[in-house]
Amino acid sequence: MTSAEPAAVKVREKPSTPRERARTQTIADIVRLGREHLAVHGAAALSLRAVARDLGVVSSAVYRYVENRDELLTLLLIDAYNQLGDDVDEAVNAEVEDDFAAQFRALAKAVRSWAVREPASYSLLFGSPVPGYQAPGERTTVPGTRVIVRLVGIFDAAYRAGALNASVSPAVVIPEKLAADLAAIRGEMNLAAPDSTLARGVLVWTSVFGAISFEVFGQYGRDTFAARDELFDHQLSVLQGVVGLQG
Amino acid sequence: MTSAEPAAVKVREKPSTPRERARTQTIADIVRLGREHLAVHGAAALSLRAVARDLGVVSSAVYRYVENRDELLTLLLIDAYNQLGDDVDEAVNAEVEDDFAAQFRALAKAVRSWAVREPASYSLLFGSPVPGYQAPGERTTVPGTRVIVRLVGIFDAAYRAGALNASVSPAVVIPEKLAADLAAIRGEMNLAAPDSTLARGVLVWTSVFGAISFEVFGQYGRDTFAARDELFDHQLSVLQGVVGLQG
DNA sequence: CAATGTCAAGAGCGCTGCTCTCGTTTGTTG
DNA sequence: CAACAAACGAGAGCAGCGCTCTTGACATTG
């Protein structure tokens, strides 16, 4: 079903003592069982008691390893972000270095196939926020931005390589306040691309996830679209044109 | 806070007897209280017992009026769909009849402002599916498709009026299987627009909701974009170009 | 060997959805 | 107007949940 070793579990610096090794293993087991429950029943139905039962232990025992339900959610969140990030990295790295269009498509398809494969995890990351749960930014920001960082990287590399159509139609003016936001992003991420490219990149980003969310969340209706692969592929082609990525 | 009369509550054909009038009123009260709880605590935390408390009644009493929690969710779902549909209709109807670009922008902005105003309801409709809850299609399909029907209507009317740029760049071929899906839609909805327009319309549809979802679900990060109105406006402008809507 | 620390177990609190029973209220009808 | 049946609210109860606290068993360490 799912891979045995969750990527998000922090390994202690010196897990020398058998106690610490056992403890690390138990936490890994809890995360693995939690991921299975998440996949089957969804995030809102994630129950520490059920995880404890599967672990063959009384419910209060898991509180030795996981502070509370929110903490387990955070572990699963980080785990899922890293799974997605690994999938995306692998797919993009498999493409030729200067074929930016192929890299873009590979990224989007990797996100989509992971989302379809793990709808509950996708819902946890990109669906409605879990009520009463606030992700701790200091732990989730880095894994949570891997995909967008990679996507922006592709667009910016394409721009630097002169692979972007400058004359995307139609030209749209960027208002001043939006330009300020984009300038801040450009500075923070060391980008070269101009405002119009960055803004269109943001649109492509939201559009890709919008299309995937519609599919995973069942917004298309039961049998409106049978050719979902072709639909997504077509959407990527159009979005490619939006940023001026020639392929 | 919220309007007093929920649009979704079906009025009996003959609410003549005082019993039935009282019953209808009680159900309306339950939906109203449910909507308030939804707005404050979210869908997953919607509790019949809490609604009963606010109604000043013991928990088992509400089961006289609402079959179970899922039934209340369905009522809230229909209620929210109709609120959104009403908002969208009003906004679109306020535009000049042959200004299709303005109608498109009015529709998208109406959806966004409703979503920002009612994030919990938006999450219920367009976020992660509530685990274990399956919306009864025969009751939710009609209100649930009001927005997309309206959007497609705008695009098709624009096409019939010759207001769509035929030469959207770049031309993208529509694979056969996707064309079959689009043909089915064209037949069902009595449309005139060609495949490429319909396919791009679907992309615009998903993109608009993708952008709104990112904003409502906090995917942009806390302070990445301060100029959210301008960002959305820009995205609409680009998407307008995607379907060839000149404005 | 003894002190220390870690662990699973169990009881318990308050919350949830939901069911069943038991009187009471209420509108209708003879 | 009185009798009746339907509708109703209250309450107890079951099983599940997150979470806390105490207790006794065990392993590690000095």
UniProtKB/TrEMBL annotation, chains A, B:
Where in this protein does the record put region Disordered?
A: 1-23
Task: Report the InterPro entries cross-referenced here.
Answer: Homeodomain-like_sf (IPR009057), HTH-type_TetR-like_transc_reg (IPR050109), HTH_TetR (IPR001647), MT1864/Rv1816-like_C (IPR025996), Tet_transcr_reg_TetR-rel_C_sf (IPR036271)
Alphabetically ordered keywords of this record:
DNA-binding, Transcription, Transcription regulation
Task: Report the DNA-binding ranges.
Answer: 47-66
User: Record's PROSITE patterns?
Assistant: HTH_TETR_2
Signal peptide stretch: none
Q: Where is the HTH tetR-type domain?
A: 24-84
Tell me the domain of life.
Bacteria
Q: Does the keyword Transcription regulation apply?
A: yes
Is DNA-binding one of the keywords UniProt gives this record?
A: yes
Q: Where is the composition biased (Basic and acidic residues)?
A: 10-23
Q: What is this protein called?
A: AcrR family transcriptional regulator
Q: Top-down, what is the taxonomic lineage of the species of origin?
A: Bacteria, Bacillati, Actinomycetota, Actinomycetes, Micrococcales
